[in-house]
Amino acid sequence: MSPKIILIHPPVAKCSEPPAGIAKLSSCLNENGISNDVIDANLEGILFLLKHTSDKNTTADRWTTRAIKNLERNLAALRNIDTYQNQSRYQRAVMDINHLLNVAAKSWHVDLSLADYHDQNLSPVKSSDLISAAEKPQANPFYPYFQNRLMVALESNPDFIGFSMNYLSQALCTFAMIGFIKQIQQRQKIILGGSLITSWIKLGARKNIFRGLVDYMVEGAGEKKLLEILNVKNGSNNSPPDYDGFPLNKYLSPGLILPYSAARGCYWHKCAFCPEKAEGNAYLPLEVSKVTEELQILNRQTNPSLIHILDSSISPSLLGALAQSPPGEPWYGFTRITKHLADEDFCLSLKRSGCAMLKLGIESGDQRVLDQLNKGIDLSTASAILKTLKKSGIAVYCYFLLGTPPENEESALKTMDFVARHHECIDFLNLAIFNLPSRSVEARSLSTHDFYEGDLSLYKNFQHPLGWQRSAVRNFLEKTFKKHPAIVPVIRRTPEFFTSNHAPFFVRETPI
Ligand code: SF4
After folding, report:
1. How many CB atoms lie within 10 A of CB 263?
2. Whose alpha carbon is nearest atom 8 of ligand 1?
3. For all residues of the chain together, what is the average pLDDT?
4. Whole-angstrom Cα distance, residue 479 to residue 421?
5. pLDDT greater at residue 285 or residue 508
6. Mean pLDDT value across residues 372-384
7. 386 lies in some domain
8. Structure confidence at residue 110 (pLDDT)
9. One domain, residues 132 and 162
10. Residue 111 to residue 116: CA distance in whole angstroms
């Protein structure tokens, strides 16, 4: 008899779209005749907490009372495209829902939001704290949800339970769920995979670090390894992700956002300090013809309102293929600054193919910094691209990074000036402070100390070589950069919590 497995997407991650990782694993298992179920415990857990808080909170303050009263209306609003034409209505719905989550977790000493999970006593980058979370699952705010949910799931007597962990915000909840399973059933083998696990293993974590709780820690693409664990010989893995088992109408988005990965890793792979480079992840793209074909199949099967291409950087050849063979619905994703995008005809063909928004990591407005970071881009091309995309009706979500080792305050001022000069071409903005990946080659030449003081920490704190320390960077970002009159409106229209996942819905269709 073939084994049975349950695949779980644990809290907390943004609940605007189904999880691509376990959808791909599930399709591979189906292709090889392995019985499997998927559970989006993130979405289910968040909806459970919201409802539970609404049911039991009778002595609430005014904001909480309003958020409880309007919960169903606010959830419905986020699932309705009309809300995205009214920024203040959207914002009110998101802030009220987020507030309720925050209230739900307060008495558990957890700061919970729609995008993050922060335990006041336990760190997700300390293996001893993760083990503590497993020892006391009852101390997790999602316990009232997962105790029943997992008991019901275990009635089918699966042989394996797999958790896909991609963000630090999922780590403590994952271990609480594993701990609960171990308390009630010892039989199931636990498999732990996802990009966070890959990063930890690359960082040097032993694969038996959670012995007694976790039976297999899987590094990299999980399909092949999973088939090996399940003892499937000569298994195949050719199908597109399978979203059948997910509650597609429950996600907090207007219609289904279909996530799709056309490549693992990044084709550029050269930027200094990038985790892709630091972890030595290989670039593994699918054939572009397979991508366009799969997207059209998925489009027919799921009828999405938006396609989210998950690649670290959509390659120029894939952009070209999408322009030639449109997937059939609006799409967006990350791409690099390359000269193709300065070509108006090319951008118009992308627009016609449904490209609603491109995410661009420009990172700095100082060419010297870009060169030292090995970004392989120049600012005059970036400027031309922003103007061309604007003209072509494709929205732009720009990413800038402050506090990198080659940056000083003068460079940061140049970045601010670049953003201000292009404010009419930048629709949404992400401004982040640089974190130094522990494993980067460049980190070896800097004076460092542990960032989060955890054995699983992905980043290190460092002495800035030009004296542009983190506190000064934060101060500049908050008090100067974000206050620039040309930049304020861009920051204001960037959706909170859901950020780029919801941004394309705010883009009004412009005729070409
Ligand atoms: S383009 Fe992006 S993903 Fe690729 S190496 Fe540079 S920073 Fe990393």
Report:
1. 20
2. 274
3. 94
4. 19
5. 285
6. 97
7. yes
8. 97
9. yes
10. 8
pTM exceeds 0.90, yes or no: yes
The pLDDT score that the predictor gives to residue 203 is 84
308 Cβ closer than 6 Å to some ligand 1 atom: no
Residue 251, domain member (yes or no)? no
Residues 443, 376 within the same domain = yes
The residue among 203, 236, 269 that closes a domain is 236
| pLDDT at residue 18 greater than cutoff 60 | yes
Q: Could you tell me which residue, 279 or 483, shows the higher pLDDT?
A: 483
Q: State whether the beta carbon of 312 lies less than 6 angstroms from ligand 1.
A: yes
CA of 85 to the centre of ligand 1 (A): 33
* Residues 176 and 142: beta-carbon distance below 8 Å: yes
Q: Specify the CATH number for the domain of residue 471.
A: 3.80.30.20
Domains contained in the chain, number: 2
Q: Is the dihedral of CA 16, 21, 25, 31 positive or negative?
A: positive
Residue in 192, 189, 222, 188 with CA at minimum distance from that of residue 209: 192
What's the confidence (pLDDT) of residue 215? 96
**Does residue 267 share a domain with residue 206?**
no
Alpha-carbon Rg for the chain in angstroms: 23
| 303 and 446, same domain (yes or no) | yes
In a shared domain, residues 295 and 414: yes
Check if the beta carbon of residue 200 is closer than 8 Å to that of residue 192. no
Residues 424 and 493 in one domain: yes
The angle formed by the CA atoms of residues 165, 168 and 169, to the nearest 5 degrees, is 95
What per-residue confidence (pLDDT) applies to 204? Answer: 84
Residues 15, 106: one domain? Answer: yes
* pLDDT tens-digit series, residues 75-129: 999 999 999 999 999 999 999 999 999 999 999 999 999 999 999 999 999 999 9
| Ligand 1 pocket mutation pick from 195, 274, 335, 434 by most atoms within 8 angstroms of CB | 274
Q: How many CB atoms lie within 10 A of CB 317?
A: 14
- What is the domain extent for residue 67? 1-236
Digit-coded pLDDT (tens) for 385-434: 999 999 999 999 999 999 999 999 999 999 999 999 999 999 999 999 99
Q: Are residues 228 and 280 in the same domain?
A: no
pLDDT at 512 over 60: no
Alpha-carbon distance 466 to 447, whole Å? 12
d(CA 321, CA 326): 8
